[in-house]
Write a structure and sequence with these properties.
Its main location: membrane. The protein is mostly helical. It is 73% helix and 1% strand. The chain contains 20 helices and two strands. It has helices spanning 11-18, 25-59, 63-84, 88-91, 93-113, 117-143, 148-179, 185-191, 194-203, 211-216, 220-232, 250-261, 272-303, 315-346, 352-371, 380-396, 398-406, 415-443, 446-466, 476-480, and strands spanning 8-9, 241-242. 56% of the residues are buried.
Length: 497
């Protein structure tokens, strides 16, 4: 009886075919551990927003120093996404996937037990470095191990854990504030994250290298072994074969390596369009998302007539006003989850681009409503309604879709670099708004500041539509061949209702 030779296919074709029977334990575990990284990012960044009034009171911080505290983790994310995320193209996805979570755990310990402001800021920067590295790497671990037809939804669902973490972070802050009346309670807030972060660090040891990355390096035997584990649950690679590429001359390899090592390659054709699409809207989106997200407790408390900076209040007053702001922020932050749920339903039906455009427009509408609060004697309703619409819209569109697109539109050889650069561009906006928001809120006032963010949101919609790229249903091999650089069919841009 003749033995049938294994069928030779691309990595995506093997994953897509076997994925019809459902995901294996390794695929499910990889997805969950990647989602955990986004959970910690949302939790820590929003915890900083709740903890800042206590930190400001304990260290007697000026307005500029408060901005420095809120900006520090975002600065770390910016550096980590660009400086560390690109390493995933050189050393592979898995080593960074493990290392970054270990760094996060260590820095959380440092933040919780720091005995001076400079040490606290240093460890806060370290948490950002770890979370920044996780931005591109977690995306790649998901998109390069899951079937094409569910890639978008699963990446989006994992990123959505950022919103879950944001709500959880605000909730943890509320819980601690309601139980104690000590300025040092901010240390407990961060300490509560240490154990789950350590557990995720250990669990990430039991993940596999990306088969796409291994194949791109010509390590086909290893890629086939990983594919067997991903697709069948074991490491017996005899049942599948990966399509081999023709050998490349050493001189060509050298040219390719030199090109890939330079950030300039992202600004050359055909990648320039993808770079603009992923980085500029992400920058504009983060201006609003982190400005509103981090300072929602302060804005809410100010609107309700209290001061959360705590510079002149008693300890009880600081905690009472901080708790009041956190409670309002918790209600508003739940709309991040509502926006995420709708995005998950529509991402493969409507597409990434249209959702991002509509989401940007919705953000502008929400911020405009919030900005109009200055004309009302009782501004509470306008602030709450505007921020709720903003949070719903940002997770319906730009906050989630920028992340999904950044991991889809670049070829494997520079996917980590491209996704990392896009995330870094976004965090430039986040750092700017986190550092300047307290000062601009004092100098410009709430109405003017929110109006500026309306304009940046609408600009994000325009840029997204102008440089749109269709990735729905595209395999990663099609991305590698350049087939993804196809704009959507000409159609009028969506208009606000």
């Amino acid at each position: 009886m003749a033995v049938t030779a294994p069928v030779t296919r691309t990595v995506s074709e093997h994953i897509d075919e076997t994925g019809q029977a459902g995901l294996t334990a390794l695929q499910q575990r990889t997805w969950f551990l990647a989602a955990a990284g986004k959970f910690f990012e949302g939790m820590i960044v929003f915890l900083v927003g709740v903890a800042t009034p206590l930190i400001a009171a304990q260290y007697s911080l000026s307005t500029a120093q408060i901005g420095l505290v809120t900006a520090m983790p975002l600065l770390g994310i910016l550096i980590g996404a660009s400086a560390l995320g690109g390493l995933a193209d050189k050393v592979g996805r898995r080593p960074l996937f493990l290392w970054e979570m270990g760094l996060l755990t260590a820095c959380l310990v440092g933040v919780s037990f720091s005995n001076s402001l400079p040490i606290f800021l240093l460890f806060l920067l370290g948490t950002g470095l770890a979370l920044g590295s996780d931005y591109p790497v977690a995306h790649l671990m998901i998109s390069e191990t899951l079937p094409t037809k569910i890639r978008g939804r699963r990446v989006l669902a994992a990123f959505g854990f950022q919103a879950v973490g944001a709500v959880a972070g605000t909730g943890v802050g509320m819980l601690v504030l309601s139980q104690r009346e000590e300025l040092s309670d901010w240390r407990i807030m961060f300490a509560l994250v240490i154990i789950p972060a350590f557990v995720v660090t250990i669990a990430r040891i039991f993940t596999a290298q990306s088969p796409h990355w291994l194949a791109s390096k010509g390590r086909y035997d290893e890629a086939e072994a990983v594919l067997a584990a991903l697709c069948f649950g074991d490491h017996k690679a005899g049942d599948l074969r990966i399509t081999r590429e023709a050998p490349v001359a050493d001189a060509v390899k050298a040219d390719q390596k030199a090109s890939q090592s330079s950030i300039k390659t992202l600004f050359k054709r055909p990648l320039r369009r993808a770079t603009i699409l992923t980085s500029v809207p992400w920058f504009l989106q983060d201006l609003g998302t982190y400005g509103i997200g981090i300072f929602t407790p302060i804005v809410i408390a100010t609107t309700l007539g209290t001061d959360t900076t705590g510079l002149d209040d008693t300890v009880s007053g600081v905690i009472a006003s901080d708790l009041q702001g956190a409670e309002g922020a918790f209600i508003i932050d739940t709309f991040l989850l509502v926006g995420l749920a709708v995005a998950l339903f529509l991402v493969d039906r409507v597409g990434r681009i249209r959702l991002q455009v509509v989401g940007f427009i919705g953000c502008g509408i929400g911020l405009a409503i919030a900005a109009s609060s200055v004309f009302f004697e009782n501004p509470t309703f306008a602030i709450f309604a505007g921020f709720m619409i903003f949070n719903f819209s940002t997770n319906l569109g730009p906050n989630t879709m920028t992340y999904v697109l950044a991991g889809e539109v670049f070829p494997t050889r520079v996917r980590g670099k491209g996704a990392g650069f896009a995330a870094s561009a976004g965090k430039v906006g986040a750092v700017l708004t986190a550092f300047l928001f307290p000062t601009l809120l004092d100098v410009w006032g709430q109405g003017v500041l929110l109006t500026v963010l309306v304009a940046t949101s609408l600009l994000g919609a325009v840029i997204t539509w102008k440089f749109r790229i269709n990735t729905v249903g595209m395999s990663l091999e099609q991305v590698d061949t350049g087939a993804v650089i196809e704009v959507l069919p000409a159609a009028p841009a969506p208009r606000a209702a």
